[in-house]
Design a protein that fits this description.
Shape of chain A: extended
Largest sheet of chain B: none
Radius of gyration of chain B: 21 Å
Strand content of chain A: under 5%
Order of helices and strands of chain B: HHHHHHHHHHH
Distance between the termini of chain A: 93 Å
Shape of chain B: globular
Structural class of chain A: mainly alpha
CATH class of the largest domain in chain A: Mainly Alpha
Oligomer: heterodimer
Radius of gyration of chain A: 29 Å
Number of helices of chain B: 11
Number of strands of chain A: 0
Helix content of chain A: over 70%
Strand content of chain B: under 5%
CATH architecture of the largest domain in chain A: Up-down Bundle
Number of helices of chain A: 10
Number of strands of chain B: 0
Largest sheet of chain A: none
CATH topology of the largest domain in chain A: Four Helix Bundle (Hemerythrin (Met), subunit A)
Distance between the termini of chain B: 46 Å
Order of helices and strands of chain A: HHHHHHHHHH
Chain lengths: ~200, ~325
Amino acid sequence: MILSAIAFYGFSSVAIAAGVMVISARNPVHSVLFLILAFFNAAGLFILMGAEFIAFILVIVYVGAVAVLFMFVVMMLDINLVEMRQGFLQYLPIGGLIGTVLLIELIFVVTSWAVAPESGGLLAAKAPALAEVHNTEALGRLLYTKYIYLFQGAGMILLLAMVGAIVLTLRARPGVRRQRIGDQVELRREDVIEVKNVPTGTGI
Amino acid sequence: MAEFWSLYVWPGAIIVAKIFAILVPLLVAVAYLTLAERKVIAAMQLRKGPNVVGWFGLLQPLADGLKLFVKETVIPSGANKVVFMLAPMVTFVLALVAWAVIPFDEGVVLADINVGILYLFAISSMGVYGVIMAGWASNSKYAFLGALRSAAQMVSYEISMGFVIVTVLLCVGSLNLTKVVMAQQTVWFAVPLLPMFVIFFVSTLAETNRAPFDLPEAESELVAGFNVEYSSMPFALFFLGEYANMILMSALTTILFLGGWLAPFGVAPFTWVPGPIWFAAKISFVLFLFLWVRATFPRYRYDQLMRLGWKVFLPLSLLWVVVTSIALVTFGWLPQ
């Protein structure tokens, strides 16, 4: 249908333009905003392919959480644009060299890409027909049956990364007074208040 | 040419008409929610509230709207102009587009998509961008502090909200909002999942930046938080967006836990009332809870807010997901 074609070209051209703007925008906050725009258009492309579950997960995880944290960090950077532009020519040769090497490697990888002939048959056999189930259900059936070990393994790696990041950054500072909610809740009136009946003129 | 009209123009016009049929009542509801808030809080504080403009102050929202409309739009000279003007639009648009998937009765929904609940969750998780962009683009320290608080707060409470939604989805077996409501025909989920209902309601308070979690706009310490530099219509868009979000979150609570448009008990005198009216009544009840909470509780301290989100709600909701799954599997209640 012509509408989906228009939508496809709209989403993909905006995604590419936003991607270019991410690396060419002067202001890093603008870069993050363009990155979010690119995510959105990628989600739109997923919806056009009928993969609505992945599309919304992309928006929830990347736009709703990851990019917020990016933004959080980038906003707090104190960036002086003039200072950043200094020494551009000085770093150009080495930066250009690394970029060229990476580009050549990428070209090698892409040109020599080959899918093992048996792997295609393996995948096609297991996927349920899309007419029978929604793609959320289809994904769930595959992910929690056939790929359960890989799925759990990926989860474990993420958990390890999280624990590692916390262990690396957690510092126990001595001498910090903290509020202990449990102590406060356990506190009884008798522990802190003593009511005395003082006779007039004598004192305690 | 005739094909062009029947294929594109008429369906497009019908969709636009449906959108207006949702948005116009919504905006009227937003306007009168502001009045209701002032009236309810006034009643709780033994005052009268607005009672001068119109009968019982009923024209007060119009007067407020007119006042905001004719004021001057001020853009601070140090502000990042594009992002500064984009932020209120983002907030307002996000609060409106979420209504596309809300079912008002069986089959009465603009877009009955399979992953409706994910759509709502995605839209509500993006609500933070309006606040962050406003705080950063204003180039003001109060606005910036408000934005930082809001970012941390909304990301934290989203996680426990996600787990609560997972619990409900385990009992439904579908991500479609109509199916979520239809699964509550025997009993509303607020009864078997009462702790989750409470957690979800408190999380929606934090997600909409309402009291007692209104730290991003804590007027006693941050002036007005992220929207301190805004005036006139951009400010009105933030304001309308916040109230539209409140109504949206109430609608979501109603759909997930209070049976959506279903009549209570499903017996004769209750079923005579049409579904959309039940839906509106339940939303109004949840909104009243929002206002009641605002009139009752003092603002949370920032570290208490974080503690509640990460150390209380997150473990509780995670535990409840496990408990629910075990119960569903052991007793064979899993939905097919």
